Amino acid sequence: MTTPLRDAAVDEAPVPTGSVLAIRGGRPLSGRVDVKGAKNLATKAMVAALLGEDTSTLRDVPDLSDVAVVRSLLEVHGVRVTPGDEEGSLVFDPRDVESAHYEEIDAHAGASRIPILFCGPLLHKLGQAFIPDLGGCRIGDRPIDFHLDALRKFGAVVEKQPSGIRLSAPNGLKGANIHLPYPSVGATEQVLLTAVRAEGTTELRNAAIEPEIMDLIAVLQKMGAIISYEPNRVILIEGVETLRGYDHRCIFDRNEAASWACAALATDGEIFVGGAKQQEMLTFLNVFRKAGGWFDIKEDGILFRRAGELKPVVVETDVHPGFMTDWQQPLIVALTQARGRSIVHETVYENRFGFTQALVKMGADIVVHPHGLQDGPRRVPRRELEQAAVVTGPTPLHGADIVVPDLRGGYSHVIAALTAEGQSVVSGVDILSRGYEKFFDKLRALGADFDVVR
């Protein structure tokens, strides 16, 4: 697992097994892959188990390194985690929750931003919480100010220390009126996990409404929470004194489903994504069709392939129900094979086009405009951090030695290498274990030609 540099000794650490692939491209990916529960729901539902007075069971939990990180953090805080009654299920017993030393938390949290979401539940359970320096993919600042501001409004006292941030709630947590400057998924989750047991009613305005957020609300309602979704991104939460455990099956991972769909588009293959559902992917499916893709929706999944020659598209990333920022990176690989000029406006993260440098090295014609494009009608209002990528194609890709920058960019590099003629050596692939379960097995099942170098 790649973690932020802490000292010079890190540079001398051994390369993780499964970090470097030698990929021979030019072969269509065809076959079936199955997606399990969404990482962005599973990890948050695991944190929600802290709030219960008895055990919770979560089903279809993906076997990912992010899940392992959250499991370790729960266990460090005294939660007993055991396998459930079916494959991919976990049982959480929070009845012995206790404080953990910051060094233990830091040891497990270096590669994840999830610890920030422990704050509300731990403040309710223990009256205090600690957050170490946060890791995660380097795709933008993603400040935690939204989280801390919301916690302060609930009555938390925030104390910044050299090793992290310590929070306390000397007078308990009370409902609050919160208006997010931006519909942040993480901040919305923070408010939900804190408000459900805060005294009084919380009104959250400008909330994120992603499917994973709605699934988290379903989890909390099963536990006894009172939450209603109002028009115009308003969520009302009436605090309750106690919550029980839950039994819940995770919503499917739409990010992984879209990634495999783009792989079929880029390599001119045919991939059936088992477990994918239409409703949560409507926006993606529209763009996929406009770009020259074809799909067939079945009861147990969706089949993806090309309809013919790929076509250029104009895409603007946005919060749900817009086109997800996580979808644009694998899509751009496919757009290098489309005839004409495509434009992708990134409005969510300021550093998400760094992965295109490797594609240019492989022969792609991609020009990144760091401050966006000024002209043309826009569906999403311009933001200061906006960038735009102009992709002109089709351009044949050739093999190259490339280094993975982040989770979705790393997946895109692998798909680019599988699209390209010749051999590519892709380093840093171990980070894909954060978001793609059994990634190598799935590639082999689709006919990919590669070796794990080390």
Descriptive overview:
The strands form six sheets. The chain has a four-stranded mixed sheet, with helices on one face. A four-stranded mixed sheet has the order 2-14-16-15. α10 packs parallel to α12. α10 links the parallel β17 and β18. The chain is built from 13 helices and 23 strands. With 454 residues, the protein is α+β, with helices and mostly antiparallel strands.
For the structure shown, list the relevant keywords.
454 residues, alpha+beta, 13 helices, 4-stranded mixed β-sheet, 23 strands, globular, 24% strand
Summarize the structure.
The protein has 13 helices and 23 strands. The model is unreliable at 1-15 and 135-142 (pLDDT under 50).
Distance between the termini: 14 Å
Query: Order of strands side by side in the largest beta sheet?
Result: 21-22-1-23
* Helix amount: 25-40%
Q: What's the pLDDT, averaged over the residues?
A: 90
**Overall strand count:** 23
Q: How many helical elements?
A: 13
Radius of gyration: 22 Å
Low-confidence stretches: 1-15, 135-142
Q: Structural class from helices and strands?
A: alpha+beta
Estimate the global geometry from the Cα principal axes.
globular
For the sheet with most strands, the description reads:
4 strands, mixed
Strand content: 15-25%
